Amino acid sequence: LLFLWSITVSIFGIGGLLGSSGSRYLTVKYGKKKCLLCNNLLMIVAASIMGCSKIAQSFEMILIGRFMCGVSVGLCAPLHHQYVGEISPRKLRGFANSTSSFFWSLGKAVGQISGQRELLGSQSLWPMLMASCALPALVQLVTLPFFPESPPYLLMHKGDQEGCKKAIRQLWGEGHHQAEIDDIMKEKATMKNTKILSVLELMKEQAFRWQLYMIVILTATVQLCGINAV
Asked: Which Gene3D superfamilies does the record cross-reference, listed alphabetically (predicted)?
């Protein structure tokens, strides 16, 4: 039992690793908006599977749902940063990107509070707690179709300059936005001359060795700082 529940807990991280690893390929091929919409569907399916596990008397459904939920979160983490940053006007871009950290923390706090035995952590209500992750996914699934695709994606990957201008006007209102379009074109030109490294190539690259060490150490030791207990 200990082994099975350990796998159930840790398989979320394995799904997250797979989801984040495939995010770049999916965003380039299908666009950030489409990926986010499909990701919401994946989260709703995962929540439904976990929510029905008690009725079906199947712990395997929790295992599968946790894995799918991890894949969804792994996809969402980079997608959210990229999409929100790219659709925000330049003066609000830093603020918009910082909201993700706030909502990650808020979501964890709400989850911890909702998981108390006096609320949804009771023996009869825990399936509702596990299925509750479908609610924010459903909200985004309903509202996101009213937003345009990312302007940089339309211009840099699709070459759709008119679609890019239309998306910018829809997001930022009418006005002169040629400076922003010129910035995107400069970024596109820079990317053509920049080699994108794979994970293995990044690990082999001497120039990034110390930066990589610092990121790994920080990410590993943050789990030991007591933040989860707080």
From this structure: MFS general substrate transporter like domains
